[in-house]
Amino acid sequence: MLFSLWLVVGAAYAVAALGILTIGILVLPLALIGNALAARHRPLTPGVFGLIGGLGVPLLYVGFSNINGPGNVCDHFPGGESCTQEWSPWPWLLAGAVMIVAATVLFMRSRAPAPPREEGAHGP
User: Fold this and answer.
1) Is residue 122 one of the residues assigned to a domain?
2) Can you give the pTM of this predicted structure?
3) Which of 43, 99, 116, 117 has its CA 20 to 30 A from that of 21?
4) Position 121 in a domain
C-alpha cells in the first residue's frame, strides 16, 4: 500500500518536472501533499522505493507517445493530414523501465527476510 502511494507521488513529481511550463505547476502541489501524507508513515522504507518507480511512469508515457519517432510523423485523415515532430522513444523507455525495475527490486529485497544466523557463530 505504501509503495503504491510513493509510486503515485513519484509520478506526480515527474509530471510536474516534465510539464513545468504547462500542467506541471498545477500538479506540483498535489505531489507535495501526497509526499507529506506518505512521509507521515513510519518507517519510510521499504515503501519509499516506490518514489523511484513513480518517476519512471511518465517517462514510459513519453516514450510510448513518441513510438513512431524520431522524425516527422504524419497521420492521414479524410480531407488532410497532420504532421508532428517526434523524438526517439528509446531513451525515454529505457530510463522509465530502469527506474521501475530498480524500484521493484529494491522494494522486494528490502522486504525479504534476513537469512537465519547460525547458533554459536560469533561475529568479528
Assistant:
1) no
2) 0.73
3) 99
4) no
Q: Which of 41, 37, 44 is nearest to 12 (CA)?
A: 37
Among residues 5, 2, 7, the alpha carbon closest in space to that of 57 is found at 7
CA distance 51 to 67: 25
Domain of 6, in residue numbers: 2-111
Separation of alpha carbons 14 and 36, rounded Å: 17
For residue 120, being part of any structural domain is answered with: no
Beta strands in the chain (DSSP E): 71-77, 80-86
Largest separation between any pair of C-alpha atoms in the chain: 82
pLDDT in tens, 25-67: 999 999 999 999 888 877 666 788 888 999 999 999 999 999 9
CA angle 58/4/89 to nearest 5° reads: 20
